[in-house]
Amino acid sequence: QKEVEQDPGPLSVPEGAIVSLNCTYSNSAFQYFMWYRQYSRKGPELLMYTYSSGNKEDGRFTAQVDKSSKYISLFIRDSQPSDSATYLCAMSGEGNQGGKLIFGQGTELSVKP
Amino acid sequence: KAGVTQTPRYLIKTRGQQVTLSCSPISGHRSVSWYQQTPGQGLQFLFEYFSETQRNKGNFPGRFSGRQFSNSRSEMNVSTLELGDSALYLCASRNNLAPSSYNEQFFGPGTRLTVL
Fold first, then answer.
1. Which residues in B28-48 are b (16+ Cβ under 10 Å) and which e?
2. A106 touches chain B (CB under 8 A)
3. Does B43 sit within 8 Å of A44, measured CB to CB?
4. What is the pLDDT of residues B76-91, one digit of tens each?
5. Residue among A38, A29, A33 at smallest CA distance from A48
């Protein structure tokens, strides 16, 4: 079983829809949670960064972390065709484990005009 | 501020050869991590360097090695290339001395390695 599980999709939604992306994990030592967006043939771009449990909002994006359930989510409101990309969740522990990100498989999202 | 840069962007090698990839972190970032991305395995951690010392290592064979220089630039080397080493190699840097953004990792564009 992988440490981080993410539904690979693909996920197709109409423009303007609310998108929900999720990851589950098994390692209770994870403290830092991130969401990255990766366009084809590009490096991952950091979207959201959260420490421990709670919610964080940035524009159309909201990240949620529920450590008791080992479950994290990313919501995208008013989705746009430019949001079409692969979304990767990533997480790490403290101290010397901080630089070691464990990634989900990525969810491929397509937003149709 | 310039982002993470990686050179070269594309490489074609044959089995048995070795390759060296280079990464320049964001100015002020002293930690550099390397990752391998393949369609089958996704993004996997290779190793992290901080202050010229390897801090952590993933589950890759000894053919994969790295180093970091005093200016925080990093290189990774793969010896005796195998077909399965074909992948996108990504490096990421972070400012692990900043409490508010301790583990924000910023990625470069990657080096796409093809082994024939």
1. ebbbbbbbbbeeeebbbbbbb
2. yes
3. yes
4. 999 999 999 999 999 9
5. A33
